[in-house]
């Protein structure tokens, strides 16, 4: 069985985003790829992590489970994927 790709998890990611709490007023909701990963169905989440690892600083992987989730989110119409800059003192 081959590794899951973003197109394989796109519908599950879209379901997570649809169920997410809405922002206040006209502000959109915001979830990180790790939060989306955490809310995926347990079997899907476990398979992604088993295949790709959780990743993160020092993990030694370039395409972790959260990367698959982020790429899948980019495939969902109306979803904007953006990045957050973390201050150096928090990244250490």
Primary descriptors:
single chain, 92 residues, mainly alpha
Describe what this molecule looks like in 3D:
With 92 residues, this protein is mainly α. It has one domain (6-81). Helices cover 50% and strands 0% of the residues. The chain has five helices and no strands. It has helices at residues 6-19, 33-39, 42-52, 65-74, 88-91. Helix 1 (6-19) crosses helix 4 and helix 2 crosses helix 4 (65-74). The chain is globular and about 45 Å long. The chain starts with 5 loop residues before the first helix and ends with a helix. The model has no long low-confidence stretch (mean pLDDT 87).
Strand content: under 5%
Number of helices: 5
Radius of gyration, taken over Cα atoms and rounded to an integer in Å: 14 Å
Low-confidence stretches: none
Outline the biggest β-sheet: none
Order of helices and strands: HHHHH
Overall, the morphology is: globular
Topology:
Elements (H helix, E strand, L loop, with lengths): L5 H14 L13 H7 L2 H11 L12 H10 L13 H4 L1
Helix pairs in contact: 1-4, 2-4
């Amino acid at each position: 069985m081959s590794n899951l790709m973003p197109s394989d998890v796109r519908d599950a990611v879209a379901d997570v985003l649809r169920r997410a709490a809405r922002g206040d007023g006209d502000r959109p909701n915001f979830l990180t790829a790790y939060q989306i990963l955490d809310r995926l169905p347990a079997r899907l989440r476990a398979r992604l992590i088993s295949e790709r690892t959780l990743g993160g600083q020092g993990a030694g992987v370039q395409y972790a489970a959260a990367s698959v989730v982020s790429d899948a989110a980019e495939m969902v119409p109306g979803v904007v994927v953006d990045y957050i800059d973390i201050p150096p003192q928090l990244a250490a």
